[in-house]
Structure formats: C-alpha cells, structure tokens
Amino acid sequence: MTSSPSVVNLACGELRCDLRPDLGAAIAGLWLGPVAVLRSTDALAMDNPRQGGCFPLVPFSNRIGQARLEWEGQTYELESTPPGPHAIHGVGWQRPWTVTEQEPHRVAMAYSHTPDRAWPFAFDATQTVTLESPLAGRDPAGSQHDGRVTLTLGMVNRDVRPCPAGLGLHPYFTKRTRSRIAFEATARWEMGEDMLPTHSHAAHGIDANCAFLEVDHCFEGWPGVVDLRDELMRVRTRASVSRLVIFTSEDKPFVAIEPVSHVNNALALQTPARPVQALGMRVLEPGQACSITVTWDIDRV
Asked: 1.10.10.10, 1.10.860.10, 2.70.98.10, 3.20.10.10: which CATH number matches 8-300?
C-alpha cells in the first residue's frame, strides 16, 4: 500500500482499489488483476467523483425535486446540482473526507457536515472500504471468491432536531460486450421528463443483456442480490437495503447498480397515508445513527 495526500491505494491478493478521500471519498478504480471491475480512472487525473468508479450517497440518494426540502413545517431551498434544477445524491460525494484508519487492505474515512445551503442539518458520516482475497489469506467467510469488496456507509444525526436520513452507493460497473444483469424485485417507479418519479407499479426485476438496456429507475421489493456477468467476470452485489436504482443506456460504457435505502424524491412523495418511512427514508433523532453494508463478490468466468 502506498499513499499520497490525495490518493489511497489498497491491495489484497489480485484486488487493487484506488480512492480519493478528498473527492467525496470516491473510488477512482477497482481491478481484479489487470481487468477493471468498475469504470476505472487514473486517481491523480480525476477531478470529479463522477469520473470514477463509485461514490457514497449521504444524507440522501438520487434527487430532491426542484432542490426544495419540505420538513416538519419548514421549507428549505437547497443548492441545486448542475446542470439541472434538482439536488442530487446528497452532499457527501461533493465534499472532502478525512482518512481515520488505514491498512494495506482497508481504509476508513469520515466527513462532518455543518448545516449550509446544500443540507440544513448537522451530521457525521463514515465510510469503510475493505478488500478480501483467498490468495492473501483474507477470506474470513470462506467464500473462496476471487475477490470481495465490502463497503459500509453510515451517518449520525449531530443536529438538535430530528432529521431525514437516506444512504446509498453509486458504483459504475464496467459494461462489456456480453454484460448481462439479473435481479428480482416486486415494484418499479416510473419517471417523468423531469427525472422525478411519478408512480410505482408491480414489476419483476430485470434479466437482460446490458448492450441494449435503457433504464434509469428505482425498484422496490429487491431481495438484496444482483448478478452482473460478462465474458470476463461475474460480480454479485449483496446489500442490506431493499431498494435498487439501475442506470444505463445503449451509449453508456457502464451499468450503475445503486443499492439505496429509499425511493427517489421520497421526501416529496410522502403523504399522511404514506409517511416518508414507508418510502425508506429514516427519521433520526439527535444522536441516532443508521448504516448500510454492500458487498461485491468478484469471480473470473
């Protein structure tokens, strides 16, 4: 493991992972041997988390419509995320994080948020990234996968008021010629032209070739497992949440497989009959915490 002030390099067996704590705790690249697992960018050349492989979504995922937050009788006009009118993916990915623990195969990072135009509640966030490989003698679950990556993302409400809280991860997996995605679900949210959800309906998940897949939707009733397989490898995503956003199109070289805790724009979709908790958003009392865990099991085929 080597590090510079802005780059953390992890390695375990054949797994390598480069991170940029100063760029939203983003993963710049992830490789199994010479093969990219995620969309992977030279960490030093990266100047935006969206150029890399994965970034954390905290304290909400996806969009807050028109960047307007209605909460406990107050309206907060949030900063919109260019180029559109909405607030997107929280604030964690847009802020520098601090490395708090570091080992050759593991890193822990932290971010403390002071209320501002981007988010009006104080919170602390943590993210850990851990690599495991049987070749390095680090395979505690005995899974015998060629490699495993475990990500844990959490937050604590440090405000004096109850606050809404949502978490997710936004990985961009490499799309190859024979990439195929498969997962189960029970419902899918349809999107309007403004990229905000309009309604949900009963739906299965997806089992399809990614080459011609056009999707940017949130699925519910997800059992927490996705398989992405191509001519070189299989990646199985497992997560501790029951909602999943999938984003790809024919012209994109990636498949975004985003485990998330809540529905897109959940705060605007709540009604007396459907409180925000029913849409997956947590309400954290002062000092209360929440977290999610995601693993990627990686195997050659």
From this structure: 2.70.98.10
Q: Which of 246, 203, 212, 209 is nearest to 226 (CA)?
A: 246
Q: Which two tokens stand for residue 292?
A: 């999610």
Answer whether 205's CB lies under 8 Å from 184's CB.
yes
Report the alpha-carbon distance of residue 141 to residue 151 in Å, rounded: 15
**Structure token pair of residue 143:** 């899974």
Domain ranges of the chain: 8-300
Residue type, 229: R
What is the signed CA dihedral for 42, 88, 193, 72, rounded to 10 degrees? 170
Q: Give the tens place of pLDDT for each residue, 192-215.
A: 999 999 999 999 999 999 999 999
Tokens standing for 2? 């080597």
Cis bond leading into 83, ω under 30°? yes
pLDDT of residue 141: 53
Q: b/e per residue, 12-30, with b = 16+ CB within 10 A?
A: bbbbbbbbbbbbbbbbbbb
Instruction: Supply the pTM of this predicted model.
Output: 0.95
